[in-house]
Structures are given as structure tokens and as C-alpha cells.
Amino acid sequence: MLEQVQQYLTADIRWSMILSNLGLILTALLITLPIAYNREKKSSSAGLRTYPLVAVATCSYTLIAMNIFEDTESLSRYMAGIITGIGFIGGGAILKAKDNAQVNGLATAASIWNTGSIGIAVAWEMYEIAIIISLINFIVLSYGSDAKKIINGED
User: Fewer CB within 10 Å: N-end or C-end of the chain?
Assistant: First the structure.
């Protein structure tokens, strides 16, 4: 019985792919940690769990698609579905107060969507793009509120 299980695992699992994909998925996770930390520190509804999970999921889905689809048209449709799905998740972060016209959560929604692009970029091994996206996201989330207050004269 043990031999059968071993043969099954050896025949169907590409162990070298596990290490390769694990490295990519962990990279997506690590690149998004500063963004997640920033949001967690600011007591946002999304934080240390949400952002890394979005990046890991988009990286994983993209890796799966890259290994399944041979034509670019199918891959493009698949990736469009991923991007739409992330938008749906971000939409859940947007709240409108009933008593006034104030809308909250737009930065959270946008940064969740942005974090998904980090996962896709890492899956395609476009680390430079992923790092740039992460830095821009982090800087905007870190300093955007202060800049907004200064512009609106709320300082």
C-alpha cells in the first residue's frame, strides 16, 4: 500500500514545480507585507491577513493559468476574471454612511486591487514591477492621508 501511494505521488506531482511555485508565492507574500502592516497599524478593516492573501491568491491563480492554458486568449480571459474578482472583494470594503454622503474604504478597496496586481506580476516573474507597485502602494497609504489633509486645509 505504501509503495502504491509513493508511486502515485512520484508519478503525478512535479516536485521541482513545488519549490519554484513556493518561491514565487512567498515572494508575493513578502512584497505585500509592508502594505499589510501599514493598513493593520492604521486599524483598517483589511490588514495583515487580507493583503498577503490577495497577493498569494492572485499569484497562485496566475501560476495555475500559466500552466493550464496554451493560448494567450484563454489566459487573458482568465486573468481578466481574477482582476474582476479582486474588484469584487475591494467593493466589499467600500461603505457609505447613511446619515451623510461620506464614502469610506475607497483607499482600502484600491489597495486591495493593487495588491492583486503584485501577485500577478510575481507569477510572471516581473519582480521589478511588483516592487514598484508595492512601494507606490505603501507610500500612498502611508502619506496620502496627511497630504489630503494639507490640501484640504485640515491641518
Answer: N
